[in-house]
Amino acid sequence: MDNQFLASEFDSWAESYDDSVHDNSFFPFLGYTDLLGEMVRLASPGPGLAVLDLGAGTGNLSLPLAEAGCEVWCADFSAAMLEKARRKIPDAHFVTYDMHDPLPVELNRPFDRIISAFTFHHFDLPEKVAIIKRFLPLLPETGSIIIGDISFSDEAARENVKTDLGDEWEEEFYWLTCTDIPTLESLGLDVEYRQVTPFSGIFHLRNLVIS
Q1: Residue 132: pLDDT above 50?
Q2: How far is it, in rounded angstroms, from Cα 116 to Cα 145?
Q3: What single-letter DSSP state applies at residue 166?
Q4: Which of 24, 89, 159, 169 has the greatest count of CB atoms below 10 A from its CB?
Q5: pTM for the full model?
């Protein structure tokens, strides 16, 4: 499976993106608002908390964190998506960044929380691990990573949803918690996971031990 996706495709989607994700009736955005709300709750936002949103898109996850007083950094490889986010959150920091690439100098600084919604499924498991490891050194001892994404308990659950969805199914690198949680734990992470919908959930990675 080709794991390369183009910024131009997301640039062209930027204008209608919010309409897409807030239509909670279809895959994969069923429960989108609830999932983002739970991610915000887990982040325990407050004044002065430094938060990096990886794959920030149009800023739907960053906005409530900024409204709670967090210092928000939005990173995305789509300039058009970031422009939409800038209109919502003019005081945030914005960095055009492709997560395939090494850490850019603008983001080489401490963050109390690193968050990401509906982004990691574009990367295979080794790439997921590489991205997480890249950002671990930026977190303080009390920091955490919160990832909300398309995920299934195991291959059977994934295949059941695939069969049910039929032509609505899109083939990407979706999380399988039965194997991926042990992989994350092998990085020295304490992993909590909550399934939010039949095909999405939240990983909360805490108590980091950098090996």
Answers
A1: yes
A2: 8
A3: G
A4: 89
A5: 0.92
